[in-house]
Amino acid sequence: MLVLLFHASLSIFAAVRGAPNVQPFGGADLQVKGWHLWDYVLNQGRYGVHLFFILSGFILGLPFVSGSPSLRAFYKRRLTRLEPPYLIALTACFLLAPAGMGGHYLAGFFYLHTFVFRSVNPVNGALWSLEVEIIFYLLLPHIARVFSLSARPRRVILLGAIAVAEPLQRHFASPVQHFSLVGLFQFFLTGLLLADLYVNGWGEKGKRRLWDVVGVASLGLFLLGGRAGWFYLLVPLIGAGLFSAAFLGVTTNRLLSNRYITTVGGMAYSIYLVHIPVMFVLGRALPKNVFVFSTTLILASIALGVLFYVLIEQPCMDPTWPKRLRARARRLASRDNIITRRRDRTVEVVLDLTDAAIRSGATPVLAGTLPQPLGLPFEPPASRTRS
Length: 387
Hints:
Blueprint: H1 2-17, H2 35-43, H3 48-66, H4 71-96, H5 102-109, H6 113-117, H7 128-143, H8 151-171, H9 185-199, H10 209-224, H11 231-248, H12 250-256, H13 259-266, H14 268-282, H15 290-316, H16 321-360
């Protein structure tokens, strides 16, 4: 949802830039009546993807903290669960995109767009984060070797890597570092650290209101500290505070366990995949009122995301769907073969019976349609006369 807010703000900016006389508040200019505050809140959504990377590191790290999962099963599940929705969304956006996007589409198809073009993919600009995810998936089994160490050394290593990441990234700045794992790996490491704490202690602790206070403080820093020079350095810590409150806080846990929130959260992947094309298409047609504009874009993105989830993503959540698809294809092929064999056999039988009947003289035939038997003159019925 935070990412949707951020991209909605970009859509608003693009729309307003194209219409300088717009009155976004129904009679007010952009420079007054709270536009800057609203714009600031929307723009904080840019850090939603960083929180998502923390969550991804947490979820993916759980099986490695708990034991030694089968890498074959791990990668197969990622492939069958995430690939079809991604490729379908990418292909749909490519079909709707202007001409000349073939290279961008192919690079995105193989998760190489940022590496090849050193920019986000114009086919669907939100898909850059999934390229980062794929690289993390490939490296995770090697990174997860840290969990073979005892608790204190591995946590010191993870904390140290998180702490030095941002200064190193700032020193070796790259134009695309914020769109690659090189500039984002501290957020995945934060998720791995949280997974370690959760499996080895947190899961057994009771919920306390102190963690709700931590969550409120973290949310305050997240919303109000965006323009501070130290903010990006503290995003992993802020994310850790928010996730800790979600697991261990009394009120925060109850709030986030609401079935409506969990339902929409379960569809977040689908909503993320489709929201950019929705905003691109609708952004040209909506009235240039900031609140109407942003609210409509977000609600429309959620609506199409729900539809995409039901039709595409949810069927892929069944780990047996490739096996069932192959079985169904075999059944259809077998049925076609049976029908074909039966049809061919029926034709053969009919031809054999017809040929036998003709040869036996039991079936009348028209003159000239078959060769005449030797020694048996043939006289058409119409030429016969009564004696």
